Amino acid sequence: MSTAGQVIKCKAAVAWGPGQPLIIEEIEVAPPKKGEVRVKILATGVCHTDAYTLSGKDPEGEWWPIVFGHEGGGIVESVGEGVTSVQPGDHLDQLREED
Question: Which of 13, 56, 82, 99 is the most exposed, having the fewest neighbouring CB atoms within 10 Å of its CB?
Fold first, then answer.
């Protein structure tokens, strides 16, 4: 069953503030907008920038709540208008298209 164009629910590790533990909870993810891609993340790493933001020392601002894990790999679930470089079902590694 395709979920393209629909809000989906999934589980995510959410940080609600600096130094707070990550909490696994159900979140809603909107369909991709123009130029966006929605990816079903199968695995992710937590890197130093995630740890830095969670520490509360990141000068770029407050992003709470936040779901970390920009070093993820997964499968394209749906694409927004104008996206031509990937399509649903494509596998991505660290949010880049696989060869």
Answer: 99
Share of the chain above pLDDT 70, in %: 92
Please give the sequence-ordered ranges of beta strands (E in DSSP) within 1-99, or none if there are none. 8-15, 23-29, 37-45, 66-67, 71-79, 91-93, 96-97
Look up the CATH number of the domain holding residue 93: 3.90.180.10
> How many domains does the structure of the chain reveal?
1
Measure CA of the first residue to CA of the last residue in the chain; give whole Å. Answer: 27
Q: How far, in Å, CA of 13 to CA of 53, rounded?
A: 14
Domain assignment of residue 25, given as a range: 8-97
